[in-house]
Structure formats: structure tokens, C-alpha cells
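Proteins fold reproducibly. Take a sample protein:
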Amino acid sequence: MVLSMNLQELCAQTASEFEKSYGRAPQWIAAAPGRVNFIGEHVDYNDGFVLPMAIEFYTVMAAARPSGGGPMVQIRSTAETEAASIDTSKPITKGSPKWSNYPRGVIAGFVACGINPGGLDVLLHSTVPFGSGLSSSAALEVSTATLIEAVTDTKLDPVDKALLCQKAEHEFAGVPCGIMDQFISAMGRENHLLLLDCRSRKTELVPMRDPSVELLIVNTNVQHELGSGQYAMRRAQCEEAARILGVPSLRHASLDALEENKGKMEDVVFRRARHVISEIRRTLEAAEIVRASTWEIAGQLMYESHNSLRDDYEVSCTELNAIVEIANSIGLSGGVYGCRMTGGGFGGCAVALVKNDSVASISKTLAAEYKKRTGIEATIFGSRPAAGATIIKS
């Protein structure tokens, strides 16, 4: 079980590291969280709804003006050996080290809006686990954007800020991500999930204030290599189903209409569409159930979501299935309401809704049983819904 440092402690540690690195105290400190998706998987590119939450793991950036002045932004990371240098007086392009393209893209986006942060000495420190599907990249982008807001004393509209960060990931990191990660990192609120309409980009905070529950995020610590174009293939299959159903996207389709048209499509296309249509329904239902704190029903929806992702969308794997099966065997009597894979699939993380007072025993059982079945050590994180991007010092 990995315990997160609270945000104030993390920021104090980052400020201390900044002083060690640059020989003076930072003038500004900003932070942005990673995220996990409670429910709503592989529906974003079908104009559906997703229900993510910010987690209590953050990327923090501390900064001060360079002692010698000038237009250079220097970013040092506690996790990387090579620093990044970005000249804000010239057109900003992709560069090295590779990780620096995330903040490069964000700074370039601000400059394009007429907001130039000028020269900065920056220290980056993060507790968001890298490469585990908890959106460390969006946390880095949104943390950078929030730092620039602090430095320049500007405030972007939160939607514009999230879209600027998404554009940075597309154009500088070369990752064609959806909008969920940046939206929840920028707009998350403590003790709330965020219901996001991927078509209209409208957001709605969903209270999850009951302190008796939290989410356990279980990293399988595997990521299977996908056959070429697996995600693109599924997207094309969804588009084919929408075309047969005569709708602009599967967001507009019903399960009844899908059943009526089953004979007109290949079985695999039918099953892909069945997952998407049912998952959109589950996500909207889950938002209302979380509001009502009806945790047993919420857990059931999570199991249904996993089964659909495993059987109809076929993006799960042996290790993710093992986590869900172990969680189900612990059951309600052991403190588990529900569990599902989260993220793109083929590895990465599962998420479980659990009783707060059973976290230690659940984590112990999950870790032991998973190791017994797979020979792999799982990494387990607990989190309540956390605050989104925030300026700590300005």
C-alpha cells in the first residue's frame, strides 16, 4: 500500500528541493493532480459521458525568476537527470529531453495567446506514478499551466486551460488523447467526482462526501503490447455501428435500436456498440447513485462495466481480470463494493470502491492473492476525491 503525502507537505518538500537546487526560495508554487476514472471507459470518442476523480497524488512546480534575468525557462525534475531549457523569446518547438515536450507545449500555447511567462527557474516534483494510467502527463501539463497563471497573474477559463493542455499533448508529445484527463486535473474538486459530457464539454460536479468510502487503485504493473492499431480498430468498429444505426455517434443510439439492427452488422461490431451504449447509460446512472451514496449499486455498476470491457470490448487482460476476481471474492463482507479495470486496458490499473475502514486488510489480500496468481507485485494506492489544480504560493 503506497501512502500519498498530503499536498501541503508535498509543496513544502518541493520548496525545500528548489532551494537546494537553485540556492534561493521559490516565488511561486503550483500543483495539479493525477486522476482515475470511476466509470465510463472507451466512450469519450463516442461522444459519451465519463466520471473521473482527481486523486491525492500531485505534480508540483516551484519557480522563481532567474538571478541573472533573461528569457530562458529552465526546468529541473527530481525524477530526471537532464534539465530542460526553453527560450521564451523565440518560437517554441519540440525538443529534448523527451519529457520536456509536455511543459514546452503548454508554454507555447500561452505564448500563442499573448501570455509570455518570461524567464524562470523551475523545479518539478511529482508523486503521480508514471506510466500507470493515472495521467501523469495531464498533471504535468496542467501544473505548468497553473504555474504560468500564477507567474503572469492571469486566469484562463478552466475549459480553455484544459483544451490548451490537451493541444500541447497532441502537438508536442504526439499523443492523441481525449479531453478527460486535462479536464479533471484542471477542474477537480475535493470530495467530488466530475461528470463530463465529451460532446458538449459541459461538466457537473458530483458530490462524494461520504467519508466511509474511498477508491483503491491497483496497478497490475503490466502493460501488454497491443497488436497494430487495436484502439483505432475499435474506434472504426464504433463508427461502423453508428453508420448502420443512422446516428452521428453511438451517444445517440439505444440498446433497443442496436438489437433491431443486429442482423445488419458483424457480431464484433455489435458487441463493441453494445459496450459503448450500455457504458454511457451506466455512467449517467452511476453519477446519480454516487449522489445518493448508494454504494452497493455503484459497485454493481463497476462490475458490469468490467464485464462489458472484458467480453464486448475485449480490452482487459488476465492480470486485470485477476484483480477484479479477487476483489469480488473479498466481497461486501470484506469491505469491497465493486471493482473494474480503468483506462485504455491491456494492463495498467483497476479501481475498487471500498469501505474506508477495510482498506488495509483489502490491500493486503489483493496484493497477496495477485502475487500468488501472477507472480507480479501489485502497487496499491488509496485515495479520496482530491482537489484539482491549485496555486499554493504566488
Q: What stands out?
A: The mean pLDDT is 94. The first strand starts at residue 28 and ends at 39. The radius of gyration is 21 Å.
